[in-house]
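Dear all,

This email documents one entry for the complex benchmark we are building for the journal club exercise. For each entry we list the sequence lines for every component of the assembly. Then comes the predicted three-dimensional structure of the complex as a token string, followed by one or two observations. Please use this as the template for your own entries, and keep the labels exactly as they appear.
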Amino acid sequence: MFKKILLATSGAPSTFGAARVAFDMAKRYGAEVLVFNVMGVPTKAFSQEVNDVRTGEKIEIDDEYQSWVEEELKSTFEKQIESVEFSKIITTTGVPHREILRAARAEDVDLIVMGASSGDSSAYRKGYPGSTLQKVAKAARCPVMTVHRETASYWGGFSNIVFATDFSKQAENAFKFALASAKELNADLTVLHALDISGKLLDQNAIEDKLIETRSRIRSSYDFGDFKNYDVEVWEGVPYVEIVKMARERSADLIVMAHHSHELDPEKARIGSTMEQVILRAGCPVVSVSKPDKV
Amino acid sequence: MPEGQFCNKTPITTDEQLKATLNDKGGKQYYEEMNHLDVDSEKLWGAIQKTMKSRIKTWLEICAHCGLCAESCFLYQVNGRVPEQVPSYKIQATLGQIVKKKGKVDNEFMQMCMETAWSKCTCCNRCGMYCPHGIDMGIMFGYLRGLLYSQGFVPWELKIGSGMHRVYRAQMDVTMEDWVETCEWMAEETEEEWPGLEIPVDKVGADIMYTCNAREPKHYPEDIAEAAILFHVAGENWTVPSEGWEQTSLSMFAGDWECCKDNVQNVYDAIERLKPKRATGTECGHAHRATVIEGPYWTGRPDGQPPVPFLHYVEWLAEALRTGKLKIDPSKRIKEPVTLQDSCNYVRNQGLKDITREIISYIVEPGYFVEMAPTKEHNYCCGGGGGFNGIGKYREQRNMALRKKMDQILDTGCKLVIAPCHNCWDAIRDLEEEYEIGIRWSFLKPLVIKMLDVPEHLLPKDE
């Protein structure tokens, strides 16, 4: 399932959780890890100057600087790099989301693992709406796993997977991924749909009817084959809240969701983006799936 | 004749030289070597005798030093209105002196010329409009840059820039394979939302051929995807060439005339090969100037025209909107005060002022468009033209130059600036970074895509 994992990291501590998950998975499933770093974001037209992704400082990239960054990354992840079958470090300059997608395509990776948001670095956010994560999740051909903080990096294998569906086309791909992961990893799978009733005046009976209707919709939409360790749940409420609640209740170590927001404008999409909200609040890694290629 | 390892009279023609020069961080050794570079006076005077034609000779001769050009120059205005920034003084004190002294000038003088030609003039040609004799100092500085380049007195980034054009035929190290791969990638990434979208490479006999700026495949391939979306929705029979796709010309900024010709010829060859009915390029000013306005003369085309009618992107876009190939949903038009940056290179130099305003009339709710003052062909340079944006050595001067555009934008009261030119876009981006006046800026493509009224059959089926 996972033969090649791309770990996109700035090398900052905020990405250590993601690194731990990526290397743990690689060790467990015999995958190779590509440690991928965008050193700087181009600026000043055609000049050689870039803004350092971590500090925002202006730097001139040359071979020496690139080697230094590679050394830094090597020493940061030294023990982890040694613990896996094969790993390599790739450094480049460019707009982060674009370069992550470019490398994932060039290396044909099975999974992208990313760290927490690096915040609103004006170095490259200005003039390009949408966060790095949103843009990667939207366009990547493979699933994208986000680990928001250290505590969300898991301590063992995956044993409880929560798959949240919104019945979109992308959710079919996400389901395939969730099911395949559950089978492969011998994990329990909970399929959840959060019934968004905010702003609707429904009496309790109507809500109950909707819940029953949605449960049967899940059963008819998704084919579990011979897989038995699954539950179907429909909870009413605000989707991201219900997804995080379910993950807590099931002690989930992985949440799988579909990504299909066409809206990249941060003002419009970020607040409303269920996925980003879940990533911020979940205590475990979150995988976003959009395309059918690698599920 | 001490020639430096990096700073010398020889253009960069190999990838090894490029990499080595790039690794000279910030051009430290390069500029040190420049201090010891000899001036080949004979070669310089020879070049002037061969290339300086009657127009520039006349201009140098008839300048009456009346000073009417002073106020026309935004660099004069933002730099305390000192005499050293008066266009006529700037050109007389550099090119004028070289001619007067028949090329017998020293290193120090040439370095002063370099600083003047690249940090005190963006070749925006505004002064030419205000001179009673029509003397265009921008054109003369373009000529001076060529002389300086041939002697090795050129800013480090532009030595590299024209080297890139010589080695890769693109301003960045993007190979033909990279380019074609990027087109495939963008088609793949876009087709889900736009079923049936293609980016046809090397299609012979298309209605229109599209060229772009190497920074797009290198860093911002979304721009190529956006161009494809608009061609797709407009039902345009279009193509991109696999070779000759790069329209920009850092060599023009650098004064590398030989390379300028080669670049443009490469685009024309693509036209000859693919035989499109027309051609257009991305939202870029200097690329258009190089390919459409200057290019035919560089390549010696007798009619002074590219092989087929070559539109600026704004001409194509206006036409597509005018003819209804692209329809705008009126409810999605821009409903906030918005202003427009007129790019010197196709507004002042080619008169496309009304075309961009026609586009504005389709995409901005009436009453929300605010003109800059002055405007159209009288508008000021963004502050980053002519290569100014990319030169580290003159960053402070460039940041000072941005102040004119900043004041103009602030006076409009707009928070959104439409900048259909890469250099203007970059300058305005830097302006915000430097002065934080709280503005947003955009090319036309993403704005138009957001407000398209897309025919049902072009939408994805399932949602």
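Observations: DSSP finds 22 helices and seven strands in chain B. Chain B has a mean pLDDT of 96.
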